[in-house]
Design brief:
six-stranded mixed sheet, Creatine Amidinohydrolase, Chain A, domain 1, five-stranded mixed sheet, Creatine Amidinohydrolase, single chain, 32% helix, 9 helices, alpha+beta, 364 residues, 2 domains
């Protein structure tokens, strides 16, 4: 279920960006740009759905059998349906009216882009993301409200996990429980549910398997879902029984690095500076080579979106940007650990959307 926003205002900002960039038409198909600007999420089918945004009236081209799913918004877009024996690419090309420059959504199927290139061979095609990201990267108050609700729901799952028995369960069994609890605690659906135990924890995107967890295992649980279209994403590290001194010492360094990253967030600092702060503390403690990914990623309608908190991204943080802070330590063949929170940039620093315990969580 999608929340309601000012879609007309969003398209107005998009058109202003088009005029400034010399783009004649924006074409948005599957992917999150379409629900952001039109409030409609297309099914990723072989039947084309596409929002055609020229300087004038926007038109949503949609298969006739999908039209009942579209909420009519006549102030935002007109609806043009097509039947099974009609060519939707030709319809889009006619609506675009021989544009010089088209910005097309990044997730558009190649077959549709190639079809448009054949019908509009003299048109220059550009990715739409440079236009859409400037509007989407700073979240509106309503979006932040949904991100807060999603994060709070994820925190409730963590609180339930702290009271559960891990030992004797397989990763796959616990992953299924996490998936179910994610929905039970308020998400519309669970999108991912990683459980990585013992040496499997050294693989950040481990696929939960039949390994049975036992005392002495560190267990990385990374999960998220969608609530009214907006995503949650959090990671906590559990330990079955008393941790070794090595694990406790490594986790203390990780917790200090993650906290330093959160504390460094404020308007005007660069995305890469947050990555440098977390990474430098891990490197100084001898774990630099075991931190093998960026410090964070933006979140909203997509689980991963701009801004990316990584070396080389010199973009300055702005109030309203939302992203993860998630350093990790991954020692091949031995263990892994990660702490992940979603934060929002405010004039006073970071608003922390996740507030479950960041301690190494000891379970049975």
């Amino acid at each position: 279920m999608m929340a309601e926003f000012d879609y007309e205002g969003r398209l107005g900002r998009l058109r202003r960006g088009m005029a400034e960039s010399g783009v004649d038409v924006v074409l948005l198909s599957v992917g999150s740009d379409l629900p952001y600007f039109a409030g409609y999420e297309a099914m990723p089918l072989e039947r084309l759905t596409m929002l055609v945004v020229p300087a004038g009236e926007a038109v949503l081209v949609v298969p006739e059998l999908e039209a009942p799913r579209v909420q009519a918004r006549p102030d935002v877009f007109a609806i043009k349906t097509f039947g099974e024996n009609e060519d939707p690419v030709a319809l889009v090309a006619d609506l675009a009216r021989q544009p010089v420059t088209v910005a097309i959504g990044d997730h558009t199927w190649a077959r549709f882009l190639i079809g448009l290139q054949e019908r509009l061979p003299h048109t220059c095609y550009l990715p739409a993301t440079p236009l859409t990201r400037t509007i989407r990267v700073v979240k509106e108050p309503g979006e932040l409200g949904l991100l807060r609700l999603a994060a709070a729901a994820a925190d409730r799952v963590v609180d339930r996990l702290r009271r559960m028995r891990f030992s004797g369960r397989s990763e796959r069994e616990l992953s299924a429980l996490v998936r179910a609890m994610t929905v039970e605690e308020g998400h519309d659906l669970a999108t991912f549910h990683i459980v990585a135990s013992g040496p499997n924890g050294a693989s950040p995107h481990h696929e939960p398997g039949e390994r049975v967890m036992a005392p002495g295992d560190a267990v990385v649980v990374d999960f998220g879902g969608r609530l009214s279209g907006y995503c949650s994403d959090t990671t906590r590290t559990f330990h079955i029984g008393e941790p070794s001194t090595q694990v406790r010492e490594a986790y203390a360094v990780l917790a200090a690095a993650q906290e330093a990253g959160r504390r460094a967030v404020e308007p005007g600092v660069t995305a890469e500076s947050i990555d440098r702060i977390t990474r430098s503390l891990l490197t100084q403690a001898g774990f630099g080579r075991h931190f093998i990914h960026r410090t964070g990623h933006g979140i909203g309608l997509d689980g991963h979106e701009d801004p990316y908190i990584v070396e080389g991204n010199r973009e300055q943080l702005l109030p309203g940007m939302a992203f993860s802070i998630e350093p990790g330590i991954y020692v091949p063949g031995r263990f892994g650990m990660r702490i992940e929170d979603i934060v929002v940039v405010t004039n006073g620093g970071a608003e922390e959307l996740n507030n479950s315990s960041r301690e190494l969580l000891i379970v049975d």
